[in-house]
Amino acid sequence: MSVLLSAVATLGAIGAGSAAILYFVGRKFHVEEDPRIEEVQEALPAANCGGCGFPGCASFANACVKAETMDDLYCPVGGQETMDKVAEILGKTVATSAKKIAVVRCSGSCDERPQLNLYDGSSNCAIAAALYGGDTGCSFGCLGLGDCEESCTFDAIHINPITRLPEVVEDKCTACGACVKACPKDIIELRKQG
């Protein structure tokens, strides 16, 4: 019984000592953060999509606070309304920007490009593109396997089962760029709506 008590006492002392060390180190190396960063982050949609060019909303909020002007900063998911809120919080001005959407630059449906062979591999565009040009005569067109659809967290792009081409739902598209990055054939791009 005394061995058990001494083991518990030793482990308890080690735990308490470690906690005290961590507490004092945390106090010593504490970094003050601008409180506006948290305010800006709360105004953002918290999609963490990277469409703004930053790894997530926290990095974007930090960049907004530190930037002298907001000319090169834009949150595609939140749009102009969100950027206006951010500018109001920071006391800065933001330029008005037209809404962008993803646009598919391939019109090669099954009627336009007949199937020449049967692909029986991974249902992943990146893998299929690395292995060969596609199962049709057009080596530049869409493979129709849906990497863009899987990458979209906003359910704004779908593969049409008849044409085997992606179709963008403009009302849902936030222009985050996830589908653009996912497409190995580079047939999707962001353009101004309209």
What this model shows, in words?
The structure is a single chain. This protein is mainly α. It has 2 domains: 35-90, Electron transport complex subunit B, putative Fe-S cluster (3-methyladenine DNA Glycosylase II, Chain A, domain 3, Orthogonal Bundle), CATH 1.10.15.40; 101-192, 2-Layer Sandwich (Alpha-Beta Plaits). Helix content is 39%, strand content 8%. The protein has 7 helices and 4 strands. A two-stranded antiparallel ribbon has the order 1-4. It has a two-stranded antiparallel ribbon with strand order 2-3. β2 (157-159) and β3 form a beta hairpin. α2 (35-43) crosses α3 (57-66).
Layout of helices and strands:
Elements: H1 2-28, H2 35-43, H3 57-66, H4 79-90, E1 100-104, H5 125-131, H6 147-151, E2 157-159, E3 166-168, H7 178-182, E4 188-192
Antiparallel strand pairs: 1-4, 2-3
Helix pairs in contact: 2-3, 2-4
Give the C-level CATH assignment of the largest domain.
Alpha Beta
Could you state the order of secondary-structure elements as H and E?
HHHHEHHEEHE
Number of strands: 4
Cα radius of gyration in angstroms: 25 Å
Q: What is the percent of helical residues?
A: 25-40%
Largest sheet: 2 strands, antiparallel
Instruction: Name the beta content range.
Output: 5-15%
Instruction: Give the name of the CATH architecture of the largest domain.
Output: 2-Layer Sandwich
Domains, number: 2
Strand order, largest beta sheet: 1-4
Helical element count? 7
- Could you name the CATH topology of the largest domain? Alpha-Beta Plaits
The rough form would be described as flat
